[in-house]
Amino acid sequence: MTALARETQRQSIEEMFVQHIENIYYPGFSEEMTEEQSALYDWEFKEFQKQFSGKN
């Protein structure tokens, strides 16, 4: 997989993550989370990615 393909895949998963979080809470929540609790956002995103990696 090329670097561009990996970045595109990561962006797509992150877009899915943002939609998921904002469906649970409210629109704009993910942006607030990145500004106020970036470590929590990173952890939640990594956990979300694990669901799709097949490396559970």
Defining key terms:
mainly alpha, elongated
Profile the largest sheet: none
Uncertain segments of ≥5 residues (pLDDT<50)? none
Beta-strand segment tally = 0
N-to-C SSE series? HHH
DSSP summary: helix tally? 3
End-to-end gap: 21 Å
Radius of gyration: 12 Å
The 3D shape can be described as elongated
Query: What percent of residues adopt helix (DSSP H or I)?
Result: over 70%
Give the rounded overall mean pLDDT. 88
What fraction of the residues are assigned to beta strands by DSSP?
A: under 5%
Which structural class should the secondary elements be placed in?
mainly alpha
Report on this model:
The model has no long low-confidence stretch (mean pLDDT 88). The protein has helices at residues 3-24, 29-36, 38-53. The longest helix is centred in the N-terminal third of the chain and has 22 residues, at 3-24. The chain is elongated, with a radius of gyration of 12 Å. 82% of the residues lie in helices and 0% in strands. With 56 residues, it is mostly helical.
